[in-house]
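Problem: given the chain below (428 residues), write out its structure.
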Amino acid sequence: MKEIAVIGAGAAGMMAAIAAAAKGAHVTIYEKNDKAGKKIYITGKGRCNVTNVAENSEFFANVCRNPKFLYSSIYSFDHDMVMDFFEQNGCPLKVERGGRVFPVSDHSSDIIAALLRVCKKKGVKIRYNCKVTSVEYTDDAVTGIVIVGKEKASCDSVIVCCGGMSYPSTGSTGDGYRFAREAGHSLNKACPSLVPFEVREKWPLALQGLSLKNVGLKMYKNIAPEVGDKAAKGSKKKKAVYEGFGEMLFTHFGISGPLILSASTAYEEGCEYILHLDLKPALSHEMLDKRIIRDFEDGRRKEFRNVLGGLFPSKLIPVIIELSEINPDKKVSEIDKAERTRLVNITKDLTMTVTGTRGFNEAIITRGGVKVSEIDPSTMESRFRKGLYFAGEVIDTDAVTGGFNLQIAWSTGYLAGISAAERTEYES
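Solution.
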């Protein structure tokens, strides 16, 4: 029986360990925290968006970087297999809007519990509070690992599943990148992704706590150093770096929510972006104008501030009034076409300036990592060191929100696990 060491008891790590053990390997997971799955526990606001039922072609369309690298891993262990795994191991699942899959209980702890049950059943040993400091090699092949305190453990293969740098409080502090560099690998810069935005304007801060559903968003890189009407209008002529539809949230620092998090996958540090928010994407400018005219006719004796309740949430109305520059006390019967046009334009194109993100502390995932050209996609093995494998967030591939990133973790972990086990069996 060959020895396989898995570094990290997260989604990719536990799945890799289970897959390897199922192939007959003796597997030990080394976890520097005092418990497994700390990041799983907080995903999906504690509910854990396990995967997404999108067909594989749609899945790859939702992968932002290096989707082709994932072909072998996804087809080896796709969303149907992931769902079967959890349901057969005591964790029933449900499918929600957008194909997102969650445990029926809405408790991420049930996902972790299922993984730990299978680890125990398969004989996987987990050593907690055990930080690996380095991987040892002889003639470019893995021979073991070194643990804090200079303890050494011999093994035939190592699967690096340390995550990236997002949510460092969960233990993701870039250890995997160090192991990769020491093995001769090069990295693409690690950046926070699926992360909230900070904005320059003050009015979004007044909307703290307001959630908007079914809104449209386009994001453009702002080349001009100054920001204003001219820069915002000019940005429309360029191609959007991100375009989407969904739900967003105003916060004390700017904006968040699924739509914004997905937009952040196109964000580049050091650049400024203009967001164009469409509050009524189902209506054209002309249709919206006709809707406003009807509302004005129905409330022709009312002041402007009192006829907007049918169009906007109450918390948003003061902001719309301010940005439209229409006197809130003005009778709607006195509002002219130019003022009405401004109201339509603001509703269809509410602009904000992104000045930065909330960083790794609030990023759901890390963009960047070990270059995929240096990893065999059919096995997840290093092209430089025999017996060294990578899985999960440490690799330079990521996706938008909706369960796609956890699917990447399950799939790459599974493929790395069976590959490591089959390699040791072949060599034996």
